[in-house]
Amino acid sequence: MYLKKFDLTGRRAYVTGGGRAIGLSCCEALAEAGAHVIIGDISEAVAEEGRDYLTSKGYKADIDIMDVTNTEQVRASAEKMAKDGGVDILVNNAGIARSETPAETVEDEHWLNVIDVNLNGTFWCCREFGKQMLAKKNGVIVNIGSMSGFIVNKPQEQAYYNASKAAVHHLTKSLAAEWGARGVRINAVAPTYIATPLNEFVKSKPDMYDAWINGTPMARLGETEEIASVVLFLASDASSLMTGSIVLADGGYTCW
């Protein structure tokens, strides 16, 4: 009875930023559970690499080249997916950080870029794919937030990133309240520091790395598959009573 709730056979899942790192692990998890996965990515090369990886594992995946900050591209992608059978699961994973800039020196372009990708891009995708889900009264959306939406990270300054992820969390709750009775569930995952290319820079900053690890009760970075496992749970019927939840997967970081 319970394992069947994780079965996604016959469902279509669209993952933004799905070509690598957390996004690719999400694609793999959803595909392993039986979903037909579409890798949405701004880079065709990255998307193709992701598809090749999934194909090598025996999974079928399609790619869709789309910039989440471009409303016309998001709308076109959603319409294209609708013609191909629609999307049952949307994972809003695309995001950027651009950390280590004190608030007083943040340029307008820097602030707007991070907000545009992390918050606006998430909303544009929720809006366009959500319309289709609302029309058929069924669908699941999983947003990738961050523990940074709950705490202020140290030692790196990143007010813009923290604000964007806190906004993603509240957007998740707001849409859940609007759409819950209309058949669409929406939740978010809030990860800790994950071993991804985005965080590669910390290897050359031992003081920062030590601060990250010493601030985490589990004393390690997370792995992409650990976030993908939570995404799979939220995307499946195993979480059927959950909407508007922000699930911390932070190695205990926010306990202190």
Automatic annotation (TrEMBL):
Keywords: Oxidoreductase. It comes from the Bacteria. InterPro entries: NAD(P)-bd_dom_sf (IPR036291), Sc_DH/Rdtase_CS (IPR020904), SDR_fam (IPR002347). GO terms for biological process: carbohydrate metabolic process. GO terms for molecular function: oxidoreductase activity, acting on the CH-OH group of donors, NAD or NADP as acceptor. Pfam families: adh_short_C2. The keyword Oxidoreductase applies. Belongs to the short-chain dehydrogenases/reductases (SDR) family. This is 3-oxoacyl-ACP reductase. It comes from Thalassospira alkalitolerans.
